[in-house]
Amino acid sequence: MNLVASAKIPTRNIDLRLSLSAGETVAVMGPNGAGKSTLLAVLAGLIRPDHGSASLNGKTLYDDGAWLPPHARGIALLAQDALLFPHLSVLENVAFGPRSAGASRSAARQAANRWLQEVDAADLAGHRPSRLSGGQAQRVAVARALAAEPALLLLDEPLAALDISVAPVLRRTLRRVLEGRSAIIVTHDVVDALLLADRVVIIDGGRIVEDGPTRSVLERPRSRFAAGLAGVNLLTGTTAAGGLHTSTGLQLAALTEEDLPPGKDAAAVFSPRAVAVHRLRPTGSPRNVFSVTVTDLEQHGPRTTVRAGHLSAEITTASAADLDLLPGTGMYFSVKSAEVTVYLL
């Protein structure tokens, strides 16, 4: 493993354990306040945990008795704000890392030019940060971080502050420069996870609640947060004949690809688009029916998302109008068993 780390901070309700293989990019996701940025700050040396240890390529970053200062860790942290030195040119900003590591001025400038070319910002070399757009500044910040040749790159929502038209450009740049590089990226955007990360870690309440290959976590989520990211409904319980038995007593029918042993912890997922909404309890073909209370409505042009607690349905806006849906209205959700997938946890 390239990185092996654990950290406990009781005052922040943090108890995390994370490992990272050489050349692997991990996306860290979770609700606000879950502990994502705290994890990066601990690894970067900005926060000292009460207990725990971490090593990077065999070098101890910290343990209960040792503490390596940030500048000696071989870790670069890239935040939402580019934080470029305003009094230095773009070239000098990027050359700062190599110069700090002892490189000659010419060698540092050569490295800076190379990395500016990597992020498609070579034409900005002579500019001051005040003349850069948000997207340009963030590309320069990426170049500056990589010019230091860090053993580990930490990115704390690097695309969050960018205009929606600019973010895809930087995302493509990151995809290219992160290839084969050890990195941890905190993000709220599922697109970042899909395009940039080999693995996804979900943090909630200061604990890692889910960890696995990106597509596996997003296509087969085991936590409600991951299910929300993936845009699917998630119910948990235990396996039963033909489906799932939830803790609330609901029997959910599903078509499974294999026979699942009964009584095992499992999850059922189904798309909001597979859910029909009714005023009266439906009958007819085999289906799962839930008695729900509408909690929220979100209109997206011709379609409307109907939320009922942690369940959601996506129907046409015309249908929503015909049903006269309002928060607090009692309705029925139904989904055919063929649309439900059950898998063991």
Automatic annotation (TrEMBL):
GO MF terms held by the record: ATP binding; ATP hydrolysis activity
UniProt cross-references to InterPro entries, sorted A to Z: AAA+_ATPase, ABC_SmlMolc_Importer, ABC_transporter-like_ATP-bd, ABC_transporter-like_CS, Mo/tungstate-bd_C_term_dom, P-loop_NTPase, Transp-assoc_OB_typ1
Listed Pfam families: ABC_tran, TOBE
Coiled coil ranges: none
Stretches assigned to the ABC transporter domain: 1-230
Domain of life: Bacteria
SMART domains linked: AAA
Keywords: ATP-binding, Nucleotide-binding, Transport
Name of the protein in its database record: Molybdate transport system ATP-binding protein
Species annotation: Arthrobacter subterraneus
